[in-house]
Amino acid sequence: MPSGNRKGTRNRRPARSPSDATPNSSPEDGRGRGPKSNPNGGSGSPVLEILVVFLAVYLLQGVAAFAGAMGGLFVLSPPLTDNPWTIVTSVYAHGGMGHLLSNSVALFLFGWPIARATSRLRFHLFFAITGALAGISQILLTDAVLASPLVAATGRPGVLGASGAVFALMGYLIASNRLSAGLASFVDVPRWVAITVFVVLAAAVTLATASPGVALIAHFAGFLLGLFAGRARVLHVGGRTRS
């Protein structure tokens, strides 16, 4: 047999049977280990999904406004029992293109790091629940103030927008990052001190972002919810696995 054929035989790798493969053997992450687990299953980001919902709802708002049904479908207003679905739909609705764009940018900035570390379901539930609670807080506290005899009430305005949920993501990111978690583990802070710090921080951030026509109570409530949720790490799904 020619020497060239013997050389080719020596350099040829033996064929592997299916039993040689391990569950995490391919593709590798470049360090001889299997792929890292992905909380979202590797199929897109909940941030992008919410942005799509924002756009779809905004288009539906135009149709509803033309039909005269905007308030009943997308604006959260008292009493809450009249149109209970607006507790959720108002979170994804916006008062104009500028409102939509500002919330979309903030969602991307604050939501993307959180979405990469949690599951799609937890992210969507957190966004919807904190946004709804922030809106409810705005309605109930505003309604209580306007019902006071010391205030000359001219109307009971409704609320819409994702700002409360976006502020909750901001608060979560601040309270759950490695620096905050490290300080909390080294410094034994009494609970009342932590609560006071969170309330003051939420008030400061709310006032710093205040502008005419903004639902300040919803911003404050959302940010405070995010701080407490971040401290409790409610979106944490555990460590990543290795092969």
Automatic annotation (TrEMBL):
Residues annotated as transmembrane: 50-76, 96-114, 126-147, 159-180, 192-210, 216-234
Domain Peptidase S54 rhomboid span(s) in chain numbering: 83-231
Region Disordered, residue ranges: 1-42
A biological process from GO: proteolysis
Major location category of this protein: membrane
GO MF assignments: serine-type endopeptidase activity
Cellular component per GO, a single term: membrane
Gene3D superfamilies: Rhomboid-like
Localization per Swiss-Prot or TrEMBL: Membrane
Membrane topology: Multi-pass membrane protein
Record key words, sorted: Hydrolase, Membrane, Protease, Transmembrane, Transmembrane helix
Protein name: Membrane associated serine protease, rhomboid family
Organism whose genome encodes this protein: Natronobacterium haloterrestre (Halobiforma haloterrestris)
Lineage: Archaea, Methanobacteriati, Methanobacteriota, Stenosarchaea group, Halobacteria
